[in-house]
């Protein structure tokens, strides 16, 4: 959107007189419904008419009842459903010009000139072809007398925006496609279940996952479960892989491992292009090693089930962005696709993305496998490199004589152990000796420190909580003992994994450097807390798992309300003063309101919310969900809000309240937290290794500069290291939150989707970027 237009555009009037059609096409993916729901509701919010196209392109061609007007209520209770409610079909008719002509005629008759397509690269390419031919199709329709000159004039141009729905994550230009995260949830549930039975019987399990042309699901699964081997189409194994695989499996057993896990993408192949099948691998392992081996082909289980919180939020954010892109498009704007880069919604030219996606297939066909991995994007390449490093022990011949200590601080959260495992293994690969500090800073002061080796952390990625033990105590009062133990155990570097206490504790160690020389060692803090309140990072390990726990609980609560009708639930979430969980769960579960500390509210706001709920009960959607962050307001407590809604809703609705409590800190980590923890742990130790070389002077380590103690955080599109001291200015220490939080910009979306009449800030919307320019994308 150009800057000069900014002040004059009222988002609630942008769509007046316009019509938008939304369709899902190709293979279904969890989260498509969230995208459809957001497209419909934001379309209606802008004043546009929105139409469902049932059964994908087939419905577009057949017309009639397949294209029908959507209402606000028609997309209610869709968020938690897998698949696509409006149906999807493979369509041969649309591939012919006659078919596309029928489709154009159906759209013109309804005055629809904006099309939102949710599907894979085939579906999006079809949409672009349709747009390119549009004016020619209209000429033919006028000539055939199917439409009038006047109708053709009114619909002279077709705008198209795509959203990528595909569980394979096989579309170049986006970090994640809608459905990928949910598919990983299904796979990891199976992997966790299989590991327990495999350990009981000392078995080897071969798991085949989807991905005919893309190994993303297989690769991330292997990374998230620490698999012994992974077969992906982008990187076929070297010749003689059979011997290598058998050697690796035998080594693992010799080290005391009771199971082996091998992950195979369905499109796995040798360098000569011949397929590698699960049965082939099973025969190899059974014949050569005599191991008890089982094969599990996951199949369509991966497409099914409820969408994860990530996919619901991704679908919702993309839906909003897609409507804005359609309404801002001009005849000169190329068809675009809404994608995700880091945590940013980005618009990219559709055909550029399709082109690069095709180049991957071409590179694989020509045997240029390194190029194929690079073209898949930075995220894929990072996953591949991290997996290769951590999959199997390969320490250097010479030791570095460096001791790196690892500790957990603050409340436990899911994913901490994945970060510890990755840090330990990466350290061993670098030639360091790794030390485990138990019970946080107390353990460091009391000398609860012991060596931790490669096999000590086997199987840790899937374990919740903190295996090292963790406490909230800060180091300030025990600096003397801590400095003595740093000297006694000869600790040269420190990895602190935890929440806000980890940041403050790290800061206290840095401030103590003036008095205690022992503290002059490189320190890295990895944010791990359900609250997502650590300065220097947009995300922290553990927040995704907590978010999914809250979301699935809210689903169940809403389901119970669907039966009783006219019921409002007040749900209290964790997070301290940080409203991240309440806001994101509100978006993922379809809440009517989410009260947080960062967005002040008074009795007038509460009154307006209650009135909004009263109005809602007059519609067909007779249930309500209100989230409240535990520390959003000391006077407007959960009980107060519950009592207020109960009193004001008398005779109209009744209320129930739920305080979710510590279930939000427990559970097995989600695929995102396992993967994120693994990448953070590995990257932290690589950074420490470089810092140690910088700080080595006169035969010893001496680190006293600000940049030798950093927080490793995800910022917009990259993992970055930021000095602890520099982040002080950005931190509200009293409330234990960063002063600026990116997710606050998403809150208006939640309110608009809950039918509040507020202004959406369109100034932040993504402008069209280019794939070729994006160095982060091509990994140059």
UniProtKB/TrEMBL annotation:
The active site is at 168 (proton acceptor). Substrate binds at residues 166-168, 203, 210-212, 266, 294, 300-303. Beta-D-fructose 2,6-bisphosphate binds at residues 472, 529-533, 567, 574-576, 630, 656, 662-665, 736. Residues 1-392 are annotated as: N-terminal catalytic PFK domain 1. Allosterically activated by ADP, AMP, or fructose 2,6-bisphosphate, and allosterically inhibited by ATP or citrate. Gene3D superfamilies: 3.40.50.450, Phosphofructokinase domain. Its main location: cytoplasm. One of its GO terms (biological process) is fructose 1,6-bisphosphate metabolic process. Mg(2+) binds at residue 121. Pathway: Carbohydrate degradation; glycolysis; D-glyceraldehyde 3-phosphate and glycerone phosphate from D-glucose: step 3/4. Its EC number is 2.7.1.11. One of its GO terms (molecular function) is 6-phosphofructokinase activity. It holds the Pfam family PFK. Residues 20-325, 403-687 form the Phosphofructokinase domain. It comes from the Eukaryota. The keyword Cytoplasm applies. ATP binds at residues 27, 90-91, 120-123. Keywords: Acetylation, Allosteric enzyme, ATP-binding, Cytoplasm, Glycolysis, Glycoprotein, Hydroxylation, Kinase, Magnesium, Metal-binding, Nucleotide-binding, Phosphoprotein, Transferase. Its cofactor is Mg(2+). The keyword Manganese does not apply. PROSITE patterns: PHOSPHOFRUCTOKINASE. Homo- and heterotetramers. Belongs to the phosphofructokinase type A (PFKA) family. ATP-dependent PFK group I subfamily. Eukaryotic two domain clade 'E' sub-subfamily. Belongs to the phosphofructokinase type A (PFKA) family. ATP-dependent PFK group I subfamily. Eukaryotic two domain clade "E" sub-subfamily. NCBIfam families: 6PF1K_euk. Catalyzes the phosphorylation of D-fructose 6-phosphate to fructose 1,6-bisphosphate by ATP, the first committing step of glycolysis. This is ATP-dependent 6-phosphofructokinase. The lineage of its organism: Eukaryota, Metazoa, Chordata, Craniata, Vertebrata.
């Amino acid at each position: 959107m150009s800057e000069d237009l900014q002040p004059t555009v009222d988002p609630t009037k942008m769509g007046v007189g316009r019509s938008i059609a939304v369709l899902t096409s190709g293979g279904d993916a969890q989260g498509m419904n969230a995208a459809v729901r957001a497209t419909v509701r934001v379309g209606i919010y802008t004043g546009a008419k929105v139409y469902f196209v049932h059964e994908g392109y087939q419905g577009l061609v057949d017309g009639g009842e397949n294209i029908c007007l959507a209402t606000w209520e028609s997309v209610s209770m869709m968020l938690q459903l897998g698949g696509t409610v409006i149906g999807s079909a493979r369509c041969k008719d649309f591939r012919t010009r006659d078919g596309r002509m029928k489709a154009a005629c159906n759209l013109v008759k309804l005055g629809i000139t904006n099309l939102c397509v949710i599907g894979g690269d085939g579906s999006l390419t079809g949409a672009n072809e349709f747009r390119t031919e549009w004016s020619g199709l209209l000429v033919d329709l006028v000539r055939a007398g199917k439409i009038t000159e006047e109708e053709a004039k009114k619909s002279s141009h077709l705008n198209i925006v795509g959203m990528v729905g595909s569980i394979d994550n096989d579309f170049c230009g986006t970090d994640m496609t809608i459905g990928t995260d949910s598919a990983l949830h299904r796979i990891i549930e199976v992997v966790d279940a299989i590991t327990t039975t495999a350990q009981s019987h000392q078995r080897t399990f071969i798991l085949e996952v989807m991905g005919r042309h893309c190994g993303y699901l297989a690769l991330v699964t292997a990374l998230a479960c620490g698999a012994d081997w992974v077969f992906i189409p982008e990187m076929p194994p070297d010749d003689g892989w059979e011997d290598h695989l058998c050697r690796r499996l035998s080594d693992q057993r010799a080290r005391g491992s009771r199971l082996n896990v091998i992950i195979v993408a369905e499109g796995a192949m040798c360098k000569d292009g011949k397929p590698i099948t699960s049965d082939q691998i099973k025969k190899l392992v059974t014949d050569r090693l005599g191991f008890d081996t089982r094969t599990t082909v996951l199949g369509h289980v991966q497409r099914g089930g409820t969408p994860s919180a990530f996919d619901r939020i991704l679908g919702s954010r993309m839906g909003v962005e897609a409507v804005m892109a359609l309404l801002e498009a001009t005849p000169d704007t190329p068809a675009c696709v809404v994608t995700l880069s880091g945590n940013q919604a980005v618009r990219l030219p559709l055909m550029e993305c399709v082109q690069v996606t095709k180049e991957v297939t071409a590179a694989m066909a020509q045997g240029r496998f390194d190029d194929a991995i690079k073209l898949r994007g930075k995220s894929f390449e990072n996953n591949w490199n991290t997996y290769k490093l951590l999959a199997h022990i390969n320490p250097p011949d010479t030791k570095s004589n460096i001791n790196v200590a690892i500790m957990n601080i603050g409340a436990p959260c899911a994913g901490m152990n994945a970060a510890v495992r990755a840090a330990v293994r990466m350290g061993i690969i670098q030639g360091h000796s790794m030390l485990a500090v138990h019970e946080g800073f107390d353990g460091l002061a009391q000398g609860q420190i012991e060596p931790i080796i490669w096999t000590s952390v086997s199987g840790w990625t899937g374990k919740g909580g903190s295996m090292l033990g963790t406490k909230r105590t800060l180091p300030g009062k025990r600096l003397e003992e801590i400095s003595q133990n740093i000297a006694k155990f000869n600790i040269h570097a420190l990895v602190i994994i935890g929440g806000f206490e980890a940041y403050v504790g790290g800061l206290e160690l840095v401030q103590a450097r003036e008095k205690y020389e022992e503290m002059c060692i490189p320190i890295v803090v990895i944010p791990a807390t359900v609250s997502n309140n650590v300065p220097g990072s947009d995300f922290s390990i553990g927040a995704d798992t907590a978010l999914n726990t809250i979301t699935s609980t809210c689903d169940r609560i809403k389901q119970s309300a669907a039966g009783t009708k006219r019921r409002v639930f007040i749900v209290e979430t964790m997070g301290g003063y940080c409203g991240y969980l309440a806001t994101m769960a509100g978006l993922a579960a379809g809440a009517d309101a989410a009260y947080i500390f960062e967005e002040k509210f008074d009795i007038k706001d509460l009154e307006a919310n209650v009135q909004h709920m009263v109005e809602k009960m007059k519609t067909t959607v007779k249930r309500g969900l209100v989230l409240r962050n535990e520390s959003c307001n000391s006077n407007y407590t959960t009980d107060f809000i519950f009592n207020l809604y109960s009193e004001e809703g008398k005779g109209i609705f009744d209320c129930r309240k739920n305080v979710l409590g510590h279930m939000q800190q427990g559970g097995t980590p989600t695929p995102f937290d396992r993967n994120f923890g693994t990448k953070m742990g590995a990257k932290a130790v690589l950074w420490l290794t470089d810092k140690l070389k910088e700080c080595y002077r006169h035969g010893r380590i001496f680190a006293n500069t600000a940049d030798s103690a950093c927080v490793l955080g995800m910022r917009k599109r990259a993992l970055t290291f930021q000095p602890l001291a520099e982040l002080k200015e950005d931190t509200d220490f009293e409330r234990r939150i960063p002063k600026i939080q990116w997710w606050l910009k998403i809150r208006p979306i939640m309110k608009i989707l809950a039918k509040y009449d507020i202004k959406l800030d369109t100034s932040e919307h993504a402008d069209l970027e280019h794939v070729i320019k994006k160095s982060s994308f091509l990994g140059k």
